[in-house]
Design a protein that fits this description.
By secondary structure, this protein is an alpha+beta fold. 38% of the residues lie in helices and 20% in strands. The chain has three domains: 118 residues; 119 residues, no CATH class; 222 residues, Aminoglycoside phosphotransferase (APH), C-terminal lobe (Aminoglycoside 3'-phosphotransferase, Chain: A, domain 2).
Length: 487
């Protein structure tokens, strides 16, 4: 396998031209494609690397492709694609089909999403194992769990010895088929590789934060074993060239533990059985506090006074105003919702300050894993992918993560019928109590800050559900009713 990947070559735009008509149909149908609802008008090639030379049986290309769409500000989203090439697809790969090429260098061949195929997926692991350099691609790893921080593995990933140790050869690969915004591959029940689908140049928190946490010995986050990146200087992307000191983080390899369950599935299972989840919620609160404390040790913190908090409050108000325009059902609640933000601004004007630090950024039950031994881990530090990378890396009050988790308990309680608001209230209280047990600060002792961030999250949820899942709209609207009520 290693012999094959050393025979690499960078391909030209002719390859993209041959794939263009197929990608225009296939790409918008993928769950991880961000520009749904608008046609793709053009593609531009950021980087293309041949990982396996085309033979009569199998070829493999790694592509970074920018999709251009009408009414889209900026240069368009950049996507990572692993394109397999065969004369014909075996039946087992039918779900991976992209199409049959009728022009250009691949004419007469069939192309498909190679992540569904064990052999191409194993090429990636071998490249990480050998620290390969192939075209613009860099396959790195660090046996001490450290690095420069320059990474959605749902399922069973957690820290199992950190980044220490070697990557054994010959692990069999299988794709995790339940992915949404990214893709994951499991290798022999030993590692899980999260491959980012939509990528931007810069320091990605999905690698940066787990590496920082590994340096301070935090056991609650899986330590990266290896990672894949593309040097900006080795691409044809003009936006990347402006930030040549950065690179595209393309994937992160972490330990895998069979049998771990994500918090969302676990909560729904216990709720359906009528079982108490408060002990798990309390343990999850302790785990969250451990991660926050470790991040505060690993990376700088800042103090938020009136000058620093005002822009945060203004952003909340702007999001509310935009949400009211998008979802008129919010209009009757607007005064009460604005009061949540104004109360926070008033405290800051009176001289109260808060500490901001790096946080998870998109914390909910689905971003947490419980191992068979009962230990909780936090995963997926990418933050909200829709937000700019620079914004995702800003220090923020830890209560933003806490508000996200509290909303997640509410969602779980409303997912089954009859609904269980009391279940959510018990879990919310237990989570906050567990958090306080570890860090000494109960989020409920700062109710103004907590209410403001929970309100901001609920407003976001209303817009999302109205656009994508109208049947779920009553869930955040019930929170809006509660949060807009006079204190």
């Amino acid at each position: 396998m290693s012999e094959a990947i050393t025979r690499s070559a960078t391909t030209g735009p002719d390859l993209l031209a041959s794939l263009d008509p197929l990608l225009r149909e296939w790409l918008p149908r993928q769950r991880w494609f961000a520009g749904k609802g608008r046609p793709v008008t053009d593609f531009s090639l950021v980087a293309a690397t041949e990982l396996l030379p085309i033979t009569t049986q199998l070829g493999l290309y790694h592509l970074l492709v920018r999709a251009h769409q009408p009414a889209l500000q900026g240069p368009g989203d950049c996507y990572q694609l692993l394109i397999g090439v065969r004369e014909a697809l075996p039946p087992r790969l039918a779900p991976a089909l992209i199409g049959h090429v009728d022009r250009g260098p691949l004419s007469g061949r069939t192309v498909y999403d190679a992540l569904y195929d064990a052999r191409p997926a194993e090429v990636l692991l071998e490249a990480m194992r050998t620290r390969a350099r192939i075209g613009a691609l860099r396959f790195d790893r660090d046996g001490n769990g450290s690095g420069d921080g320059s990474g959605d593995g749902k399922g069973a990933a957690r820290d199992d010895g950190g980044g220490e140790g070697e990557i054994p050869a010959g692990l069999v690969a299988r794709m995790v088929t339940s992915e949404q915004s990214n893709s994951s591959i499991v290798y022999g029940d030993t590692f899980i590789l999260k491959l980012l689908r939509r990528v931007v140049p810069g320091v990605n928190p999905d690698l940066e934060l787990p590496l920082a946490l590994a340096r301070v010995g935090c056991p609650r986050v899986p330590a990266p074993v290896a990672w894949i990146r593309a040097d900006a200087a080795g691409t044809t992307d003009p936006d990347a060239e402006l930030n040549a000191e950065d690179s595209y983080v393309l994937g992160v390899l972490q330990p895998f533990v069979r049998g771990a369950a994500d918090g969302w599935e676990l909560a729904l299972r216990e709720l359906a059985k009528g079982e108490d989840f408060s002990a798990e919620a309390r343990a999850l609160g302790r785990a969250t506090a451990e991660v926050h404390m470790a991040l505060a040790r690993a990376l700088p913190t800042v103090t938020l006074g009136h000058a620093q908090l005002r822009p945060l409050v203004d952003g909340m108000v702007e999001r509310l105003d935009a949400a009211i325009q998008a979802v008129p059902a919010l209009h009757p609640y607007a005064p009460g919702l604005r009061s949540a933000y104004e109360a926070l601004a008033d405290l800051a004007a009176e001289g109260q300050t808060w500490t901001a630090q790096r946080i998870h950024g998109d914390l909910h039950l689905g971003q947490c894993l419980r191992s068979p031994s009962g230990e909780w881990s936090l995963i997926d530090f990418e933050g909200e992918p829709s937000k700019p990378l620079a914004e995702r890396r800003l220090p923020q009050p830890p209560v933003r993560d806490i508000a996200g988790m509290l909303r997640s308990f509410d969602y779980a309680a409303h997912s089954l019928h009859p609904r269980s608001p009391d279940w959510a209230a018990v879990c919310r209280a237990a989570y906050c109590a567990g958090y306080a047990e570890t860090c000494g600060r109960d989020p409920r002792t700062d109710p103004v800050l907590l209410r403001a961030y929970e309100t901001d999250k609920a407003v976001y949820e209303v817009v999302y559900e109205a656009r994508h899942r109208p049947d779920w709209l009553p869930v955040p609207m019930s929170a809006i009713h509660r949060l807009s009520a006079p204190g």
